[in-house]
Design a protein that fits this description.
single chain; 363 residues; alpha/beta; 3-stranded antiparallel beta sheet; 11 helices; 16 strands; globular
Length: 363
């Protein structure tokens, strides 16, 4: 198939494009090369007509990019938490409006297969239950956003909205209600809703992949939008102890970028063959083995020889969630997806893998 990959110059997008080529697909690489992210076209992007320096918010450009295309893997997005009100217009413009423009162009051009890069952040906090015997809530509980007073006091676990007890965490499934709690999360949820609307209106098919904490080569470094693994690595390279927020016991699922790219290839096949027309199906893309943020910091420090050890700071950010771990069982069942990169080996490789310097450092 001829596949348009948006955001193809980015960390995940470039790996997806390469995995598609390895699987025998023809790839059109599309990226706006926004100056805030890229000072030049990365060396891993091919020269020639297969690369299009287009912005997904440009309707005419999207129609041109979609000429002769059979399917789209949509990864173009503004990333990071988006923790202030000033972030709302930018996240809405790039992620929401950009997706809407792309979907509209796909409808006009008759492109009916979409793999959408979503995120585990659409869930907000993960799945919880109240351990209190006398709690009227009983069973699964959706926690309220954590209170600043609790965080200041070092109480990091979410509380039960009914009885106030600290909650116990469990795996979140794809059927959990969406509960985005920052600008980025809200924009990713909006992308899913827009894609579902597009599928119904066009009889198209969409697979939304909810990535968990992705790490690996080409992560951006030394920016506010770097993943925690890259932030820890930069500290260690500078001989500085990695700073771990809260108490370091936040649960995450760290999944290697090559596993995420493989999931995109599998999802493309599902969008063509298995998803009913007019339908969006969402899947967790995770390793299936959750670890704490503190464990990731320690693993990174060990990969650097252990001379510098992480520092647990007790600091917090109101936009962060406490625990978010999910089961990839549905992706295994329906897509044939299973993470293949071992955590210890992945972290060891990541310790020396090339990262993408931010535009300011490339100048």
């Amino acid at each position: 198939m001829r596949v348009l990959v948006t955001g193809a110059a980015g960390f995940i997008g470039s790996h997806v494009a390469e995995a598609l080529i390895a699987a025998g697909h023809e790839v059109v690489w599309l990226d706006s090369l926004a100056p805030a992210v890229h000072s030049e076209k990365p060396a891993y992007i091919p020269n020639g007509p297969s690369f299009l320096p287009y912005d997904v918010r440009d309707s005419a450009a999207m129609e041109d990019a979609l000429d002769g295309v059979d399917a789209v893997c949509h990864l173009a997005a503004m990333v990071g938490l988006g923790v202030s009100l000033a972030d709302l217009p930018l996240y809405s413009d790039v992620n929401v409006t950009g997706t809407a423009v792309l979907l509209d162009a796909m409808g006009r051009c008759g492109v009916s297969r979409l793999v959408l890069s979503s995120s585990m952040v659409v869930y907000g906090e993960g799945a919880y239950s109240c351990p209190s015997d006398g709690c009227p809530a009983g069973g699964p509980v959706r926690p309220l956003p954590r209170a600043a007073a609790d965080l200041e006091a070092g109480v990091f676990e979410p509380r039960c909205p009914r009885c106030g007890s600290l909650l116990s965490t469990s795996l979140v499934g794809e059927d959990a209600p969406l509960d985005p709690r920052n600008a980025y999360a809200t924009s990713k949820a909006a992308q899913e809703y827009l894609a579902a609307n597009w599928a119904r209106l066009t009889e198209g098919t969409c697979v939304a992949l909810r990535y968990h904490n992705v790490y690996g080569p080409r992560m951006p470094r030394d920016t506010p939008y770097s993943g925690v693994a890259a932030i820890f690595r930069s500290a260690l390279e500078n001989g500085v102890p990695p700073r771990v927020f809260e108490d370091g016991r936040q649960l995450r699922d760290f999944v290697h970028v090559r596993d995420v790219a493989a999931a995109n290839v599998l999802a493309l096949g599902a969008a063509c063959d298995d998803v009913p027309p007019g339908t969006l199906r969402a899947y967790n893309v995770a390793s299936g083995t959750p670890r704490t943020v503190g464990e990731m910091a320690t693993a990174m420090a060990d990969a650097f020889g252990g001379a510098v050890t992480p520092k647990v700071t007790g600091e917090y950010r109101l936009g962060d969630v406490r625990h978010i771990v999910a089961s990839p069982a549905a992706a295994a069942r329906d897509l044939g997806y299973r993470a293949a990169v071992d955590f210890a080996e992945g972290v060891k490789e990541f310790a020396t893998a090339p990262l993408r310097a931010p535009a300011a450092l490339n100048d």
